[in-house]
Amino acid sequence: MSTKDWLEKDFYKVLGVSKTAEADEIKKAYRKLARKYHPDSNAGDASAEAKFKEVSEAYDVVGDAKKRKEYDEARRLFGSGGFRMPGGAGQGGQGFGFDVGDLFNRGGAGGTAGGGLGDILGGMFGGGGRTTTTTSTARPRRGADIETEATIEFGEAVNGVTVALRMTSDEPCKTCRGTGAKYGTVPKVCLKCEGTGMQTSVQGGVFAMTEPCTECKGRGLVVDQPCETCHGSGRGQSSKTMQVRIPAGVQDGQRIRLKGKGAAGERGGPAGDLYVTVHVKPHRIFGRQGEHLTLSVPVSFTEAALGAEIKVPTLDGLPVTVRIPAGTANGSKLRVRGKGSVRRDGTKGDLLLTLEVQVPHELTDEQREKLREFNSASDQPDLRAGLFGSA
């Protein structure tokens, strides 16, 4: 009997008793109807035979104290074939209803997807919900994800690099090939979970909670003679060196996902993923600003005042010449195009220069005299006059 039948059929009405009827009254009503519609008394009468089956079905539920309690509770929560929102008035009132069958194992238009409420309540109703067969033992299982870290140089982060990572991961045991059984023996389907690897417990007589089977630890299989290497788990440790490509432009602390590079799957299932957290060592002079590199460049007072052409280093080792305009102020920015970090499309960002004008701390007598002459000849206005204006 399906879960849908439990909720849509009124077994009390079939037996002709009230919902509050005592067990003896229900039994008496059943016996009377069973004698009336028994096939031996109605040979060749198909309608009587169908009625007899209906009566027997009803008594099988409400005639059993435990099943009756579950049936009453389910009917109270879900109504007679349609779910009712609190305060609703059914199909014709302010509430709304829908076919309860939509809640049970109907995935799409074809109704084959499963995963409905019947899966949750199936254990409660003793036969409703999804039916599990031993074919579920062949269900593939995805491998576990693996986490690791890699530390690379600044230049490697900018341009990309391939690093060698030594990995220790979980994989099928080589002795038993993942079965968990001793060589020459085979595992058996777990009787407790029927090979699903999961078990369901009913909470409060209504709702069910699904968790890994305690008998097979979620594998769906049990072994009488465990493998001596993996002790029945079917898993083993594997150490290997893997070449991993770190893409150009990776940032410090960035987490990279490498699909299918994690632990091997079980029973033909796909491998898990490898997650690499990248740590980038700082550079002695260069910094990063998104896709651009940054560099602070010291310039002299005279270079800033008169203008100059200077050489600056780049990350690839080849210096470039840049022009400093006359009268450049401290903190001015210059851009050298195409000398930054590699972008995803293969192009490069820029090198951003910050000019730091250096003021000499010590002067010779001659230099000091020349600066005094410059100050007298410059005839500059008072640079701080604006600081003393009216508020």
Could you explain the architecture of this structure?
By secondary structure, the protein is an alpha+beta fold. It has 3 domains: 119 residues, Helix Hairpins (Orthogonal Bundle), CATH 1.10.287; 85 residues, HSP40/DNAj peptide-binding domain; 93 residues, HSP40/DNAj peptide-binding domain, CATH 2.60.260. 23% of the residues lie in helices and 24% in strands. It contains 9 helices and 15 strands. The strands form 6 sheets. Strands 10-11-15-14 form a 4-stranded mixed beta sheet. The radius of gyration is 40 Å and the shape is elongated. The N and C termini lie far apart (90 Å). The relative contact order is 0.09. About 15% of the residues have low confidence.
Features:
single chain, 391 residues, alpha+beta, Helix Hairpins, HSP40/DNAj peptide-binding domain, 3 domains, four-stranded mixed sheet, 24% strand, elongated
Summarize the structure.
This protein has helices at 3-8, 11-15, 23-37, 46-62, 65-78, 117-121, 154-159, 301-306, 365-378, and strands at 146-152, 161-172, 188-189, 198-203, 207-212, 221-222, 235-246, 255-258, 274-280, 286-289, 292-300, 308-312, 320-324, 333-336, 351-358.
Ordered list of secondary-structure elements with their pairings:
Elements (H helix, E strand, L loop, with lengths): L2 H6 L2 H5 L7 H15 L8 H17 L2 H14 L38 H5 L24 E7 L1 H6 L1 E12 L15 E2 L8 E6 L3 E6 L8 E2 L12 E12 L8 E4 L15 E7 L5 E4 L2 E9 H6 L1 E5 L7 E5 L8 E4 L14 E8 L6 H14 L13
Parallel strand pairs: 1-9, 11-15
Antiparallel strand pairs: 2-7, 3-6, 4-5, 8-9, 10-11, 12-13, 14-15
Helix pairs in contact: 3-4
